[in-house]
From TrEMBL:
It is found in: Cytoplasm, Cytoskeleton, Microtubule organizing center, Centrosome, Centriole. InterPro entries: CEP76, CEP76-C2, CEP76_C, CEP76_N, CEPT76/DRC7_peptidase-like_dom, Papain-like_cys_pep_sf. This is Centrosomal protein of 76 kDa. GO terms for biological process: regulation of centriole replication. The lineage of its organism: Eukaryota, Metazoa, Spiralia, Lophotrochozoa, Mollusca. Gene3D superfamilies: 3.10.620.30. Residues 361-491 form the CEP76/DRC7 peptidase-like domain. Residues 100-256 form the CEP76 C2 domain. Keywords: Cytoplasm, Cytoskeleton.
Length: 659
């Protein structure tokens, strides 16, 4: 069966990356060197290929390669975020039933066997060989462990058959290495978060379902093994509507020596829910009283954007503080500015209400947001604030409006010295905020702010909530001395922590660790560059023009792309002098050079080329006519966590100027 070019490229990249990680070339070289010295020394003639291959098999090298390719990604465990096994969807085509289990740990084997009643796809037929169709992908998150399934073609009854090994590890100091006993397992109230993502043939993704599954029923089942049908609900406005049913199977390894009755497990779950409901009720009572006091300060406060509660993708009302949690990027992100760059590369999309009209407000859980790789400004701001908190900054999510009055969310950090910096999560820009004094004499020179924000209603993070208490909610005159009760009305931290603190509301998931990118930058950059060269050649051919690419000119564009990405991350431009000097030496006297750089957050060659042609400057370069015309194109893909990418493309040409 034929595959599309992008899938072939990804498959090559997976094999290449796997062999590099295993240091396969050095191992082959060592084995062959020892073999020739020991077994073939003194023999005349050449050593046959079959003999060498036989020696490699004897040494177990071939078995090691097959073992790694087959079982990599099947093991869960307490690996840190920087070493997450993000199971690549192209590696999981073969069914793998065996996994290595540490006998000193306890696991739940969670299997999704098949699906039924996905009625939206009742008319979808099997795709033709080589045809790219829409597909499902299941993402699983449980206690710091993340997995994803292979791509599953969309159907009314999809064939899933995917299993995930989830470790039931303890978190208390000194106890993390011990096997969880029966009472400990009963107290682990973290649900299994099942996220179902649909990817269209065009590459567009949508969140189909986000389900928090209570796994502890397996503790009361016979032999610690159970099967059941789980109904998946939709998201947003369709959160009460079933979107499909999946058959799941769970099994405990090793089996518990103590079995609980169903009434014991049900009582434990009911007790936890009642405790959480009581905490939420008390917080709601406090929040109502707090809001009443806030309105008594100034009648205009009624119209300010003070957001205490928000709805998630399942239409569950939660305090906004519960969405934010400090998140460390491990070794995947080097600085706060790298974090801002990473978040800005996640696609932005507003959730539209059914039937059009204004957008629907929906704050997505972080795991679902990362799995979909797309979300609204609130999702971006929450993720960026969590990462900045992880880097030790005093960061808050701001809720207000932009210059045209649209509701918006961004991030603010406040230094010890009082420096206030706005971070725009959608593009990574930073703005230093200097408030304008409204009482200053009119003759004083007032600076004009560069940021696009108009008003601000409140700021919050995982432990604090402040409502703007100043006479005006305009950002230009806003002071960010949050400890000043005259300017900001704060909520009690104890009240916030009672529902948002560690272990307070276990039904709300923790912030998932980031997964490293599975992309090989050099491989995908070269593949995209070759695709663009073909498109340029065909485009010029249709115009009756010949095409000559200058490989040296293309290579010289690389430093410029590196400088552009460095500037996006750090705000510092470097290397421009060397780039200009190299171009001047490569372009002969009497010739003209033109270049056009552009950046995308995807690697779809057709979309990128169509966008470039809309620019008059780029169109002039690609359609260049003249004497001694030479074209250049360079692509550099910068990978970030969660397979977010910054794709830089630069088209250039040099030609002899004719007066």
């Amino acid at each position: 069966m034929s595959l599309p070019p992008e899938k072939i490229t990804e498959l090559k990249q997976i094999i290449h990356s796997q062999l590099n990680q295993m240091d396969i070339q050095n191992r082959i070289r060592d084995i062959l060197s020892d073999t020739i010295q020991q077994d073939f020394m003194g023999q005349s003639g050449k050593v046959g290929e079959e003999e060498l291959l036989h020696k490699l098999k004897q040494q177990g090298l071939v078995d090691d390669i097959l073992h790694q390719l087959q079982f990599r990604g099947q093991q869960g465990g307490t690996t840190p975020a920087t070493h997450f096994l993000d199971r690549d969807d192209k590696v999981t085509q073969l069914p793998t039933k065996k996994v290595n289990i540490d006998p000193t740990r306890r696991y739940v084997y969670f299997q999704i066997k098949g699906g039924k009643a996905f009625l939206e796809h009742i008319d979808e037929s099997d795709p033709m060989p080589g045809q790219v169709s829409s597909f499902f992908m299941f993402h699983i998150y449980f206690r710091g462990q993340r997995f994803k399934s292979r791509p599953i073609p969309c159907a009314c009854e999809p064939q899933i058959d995917e299993g995930f090994l989830l470790e039931l590890h303890k978190e208390s100091s000194g106890e993390a290495g011990k096997m969880a006993d029966a009472s400990t397992m009963l107290s682990i109230s973290d649900p299994i978060h099942i996220v179902l993502i649909k990817t269209e043939a065009s590459g567009e993704t949508s969140l189909v379902s986000s389900n928090f599954f209570e796994w502890r029923t397996v503790l009361a089942s016979s032999g610690n093994r159970m099967s059941m049908m789980l109904e998946l609900k939709g998201t947003g406005n369709e959160s009460k509507v079933p979107c499909g049913v999946i058959e799941i199977m769970m099994e405990l390894f090793p089996k518990s020596t103590k079995n609980f009755g169903q009434d014991v497990v049900a009582a434990q779950i009911s007790l936890e829910k009642s405790r959480q409901a009581e905490r939420e009720r008390l917080f709601l009572v406090y929040a109502k009283q707090w809001w009443k006091e806030y309105l008594q300060i100034r009648p205009a406060h009624q119209d300010r954007l003070v957001k205490i509660f928000a709805q998630d993708e399942n239409m569950v009302n939660r305090p906004v503080n519960s969405f934010v949690k400090p998140l460390r990027g491990g070794r995947l992100l080097d600085s706060a500015r790298h974090a801002a760059r990473f978040v800005s590369l996640i696609h932005h999309e507003k959730v539209q209400s059914l039937g059009g009209g204004s957008k629907t407000e929906q704050w997505t859980n972080a795991h679902a947001f990362l799995c979909r790789n797309k979300g609204d400004c609130e999702d971006h701001a929450i993720l960026l604030c969590s990462l900045l908190l992880g880097f030790g900054l005093d960061a808050y999510v701001c809720v207000g409006t932009k210059s045209k009055g649209a509701v918006h969310a961004w991030v603010v950090t406040i230094s010890i010295e009082g420096t206030v910096v706005f971070w725009e999560s959608l593009n990574g820009h930073r703005y230093i905020h200097l408030p304008i004094d409204p009482n200053a004499p009119p003759m004083d020179k007032q600076h004009r702010p560069k940021y696009p924000y108009k008003s601000i209603g409140c700021v919050f993070n995982h432990v604090s909530f402040y409502a703007n208490n100043q006479p005006s909610d305009s950002v230009e005159v806003c002071k960010f001395n949050l400890k000043n009760e005259a300017d900001w009305k704060s909520m009690s931290q104890d009240a916030v922590l009672s529902v948002c603190g560690p272990g307070a509301s276990l039904a709300w998931p923790s912030m998932p660790p980031l997964c490293c990118s599975s992309l090989d930058s050099a491989l995908v950059s070269n593949d995209l560059e070759q695709q663009l060269r073909v498109m340029v050649y065909e485009h010029r051919r249709d115009l009756g023009l010949t095409t000559n690419f200058d490989d040296q000119l293309s290579y010289l564009l690389t430093p410029a792309l590196a400088a552009y990405e460095l500037e996006r991350v750090t705000g510092i431009s470097a290397g421009n002098e060397e780039f200009q000097d190299s171009i001047k030496q490569a372009v002969p006297d009497g010739h003209t050079f033109k270049g056009y750089p552009i950046q995308f957050s995807h690697r779809n060659a057709k979309r990128a080329f169509a966008t470039c042609l809309k620019s008059p400057v780029c169109e002039e370069i690609i359609n260049c006519r003249g004497d001694h015309v030479r074209l250049g194109v360079r692509v550099k893909v910068y990978p970030y966590p969660e397979n977010a990418i910054a794709t830089w493309i630069m088209f250039a040409c040099k030609y002899k100027s004719v007066l």
